[in-house]
Specification:
Layout (H helix, E strand, L loop, with lengths): L2 H19 L2 H4 L11 H15 L3 H19 L2 H8 L2 H7 L3 H31 L8 H9 L3 H19 L1 H20 L6 H22 L3 H23 L2
Helix pairs in contact: 1-7, 3-11, 4-7, 4-11, 7-9, 7-10, 9-12, 10-11
């Protein structure tokens, strides 16, 4: 199998893996599942992950160019910082906090990109182990367990980082305002900003907006409970693989 064929098989297998691990019938057996998280809520959050963090192979092809452009923004935010520093509206509203807010937004986008990077790491291990596709639950576990402790820990930290930003309701509202402004300015200057640059920022905005909408459904206490439950559950899972 080629690298691309293996990656497609990893994407498909890992989506099934997430879908299985986060079924309500599985989660309800967990002693620390928050009591207010019924089947409907679990499905909403799981579908968000499968739509925006781990999209299908077909959808991933559509997003690749935009994701690569987001990488450029994350590595070198100077272009975006110049744009926000020229906005009297944003400066008047947010003042000296503006650069930090943009960096927090890019940090959130970096967390989304970690999911894609995680699949690339699993693909690498599948190629190294010469493991044939398709990949079922057992094989996906084998691939994850082949990662280094640092790679596993980095993945957990990225999840925690994303949830902590979404959990800060004031900050995430400001991030959305700043990225929305940047998108508006880019649309006004199509000769300066390419369609890929504009689509990338729009994608980043959508990722954060949709996550924000889900968190709006929860009380402050429920947001914290969700954050604690998911990060603890994923840590237990990865540690169990490391200890085998």
């Amino acid at each position: 199998m080629t690298h691309q064929e293996t990656k497609h098989a990893v994407i498909t297998g890992y989506r099934k893996f997430i879908n299985r691990r986060y079924q309500y019938s599985v989660l309800v057996k967990e002693p620390d599942l928050p009591g207010t998280f019924d089947q409907e809520r679990i499905e909403l959050f799981k579908n968000y992950a499968l739509t925006y963090l781990y999209p299908t192979v077909v959808r991933r092809k559509e997003l690749d160019d935009a994701f690569l452009q987001l990488d450029n923004y994350i590595r070198d935010p100077k272009k975006l910082l110049r744009m926000v520093s020229m906005s009297s509206r944003l400066i008047f509203k947010y003042g000296r906090h503006l650069p930090g807010m943009l960096k927090a937004g890019l940090k959130a986008l970096q967390s989304f990109r970690k999911a894609n990077h995680f699949e690339e790491q699993l693909t690498r291990e599948a190629m190294r182990l010469n493991m044939p596709a398709p990949f079922n639950m057992k094989e996906i576990k084998t691939l994850i367990s082949a990662l280094s402790p640092k790679e596993m820990d980095d993945f957990i930290h990225s999840t925690e980082s994303l949830f902590s930003i979404l959990h800060d309701r004031k900050l995430v509202a400001r991030i959305i305002a700043v990225i929305s402004y940047l998108g508006e300015q880019m649309e006004k200057e199509p000769g300066v900003y390419s369609i890929i640059e504009r689509e990338a920022l729009q994608l980043g905005l959508e990722l954060i907006q949709k996550g924000n909408e889900l968190f709006d459904l929860l009380s402050k206490n429920e947001q914290q409970q969700l954050f604690t439950f998911i990060t603890a559950r994923e840590r237990r899972f990865l540690e169990s693989l490391q200890n085998k």
